[in-house]
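Request from the bench team (R.T.):
"We need a structural guess for the complex before ordering more adenosine-5'-triphosphate. Sequence and SMILES attached. Just send the tokens back."

Command: build protein-adenosine-5'-triphosphate structure.
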Amino acid sequence: MTEQKLKIAARNVNVFYGAKQAINDVSIDISTGVVTAFIGPSGCGKSTFLRTLNRMNDTIAGCRVEGQIALDGQDIYASGMDVVELRARVGMVFQKPNPFPKSIYENVAYGPRIHGLAGNKADMDAIVEKSLRRAGLWDEVKDRLAESGTALSGGQQQRLCIARAIAVSPEVILMDEPCSALDPIATARIEELIDDLKERYAIVIVTHSMQQAARVSQRTAFFHLGTVVEYGVTEDIFTNPREERTKDYITGRYG
Ligand SMILES: Nc1ncnc2c1ncn2[C@@H]1O[C@H](COP(=O)(O)OP(=O)(O)OP(=O)(O)O)[C@@H](O)[C@H]1O
Ligand SMILES: [Mg+2]
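Reply to R.T.: structure attached below.
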């Protein structure tokens, strides 16, 4: 049994793009040892809310976040917060695999180098190997570490991006539709990986696949029109939703 521990507490979060409100009063707990799925129709605010959790919205002009988001009890929007460090603690994997146009090795070594995590070449080699192993990619790439990350297959690139996120020892990994560009076999590998990773990290995954949410997550939040309609144990959400709107969505009546 994986131990569960509260990692992120989001309270009464509102997000605006200019005058338009995209997230309305969302409160959610995210725990280590748990995979939390965000589901809901296109445009309901899943990516917007996900980005509040490591302040990626800071990079979008006109975007404003209100409310409290605490990481281990510490307000991540406090003025003294080091955003670079925050994004190492709360890593992100995107929909489209986006390896740097550098070698496989450098893709993984980049973050640890910036954060000064390796004292010497041997330390760095160890971090790169460990991260690639944990991402389930080591055996496929160990003899071609100097090749470009962009030369890998889509599924391999996505695992490389996961290795890159893991390399800086994050506490939380945010994944925004990480499998939507992958075939079923590559998707199954990423899902297995997510299951392994949840032992040590808090994982949040946005997905349009109900099957995927049901397979990989233990908690599910159903977003609709910028609000969280229902949040709870995944099995309950899928077998016995409390809200009519949740039921309609998971049974495919709209979305
Ligand atoms: N950079 C932006 N500038 C202005 N409005 C935005 C921006 N990004 C998102 N929005 C708006 O915020 C709302 C929520 O969008 P968001 O991308 O969070 O939805 P989503 O649930 O992730 O959708 P999808 O499932 O299609 O990825 C939408 O109305 C969208 O148009
Ligand atoms: Mg999105």
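Two things stood out. The chain has one domain: 5-250. The CA atoms of residues 115 and 168 lie 8 Å apart.
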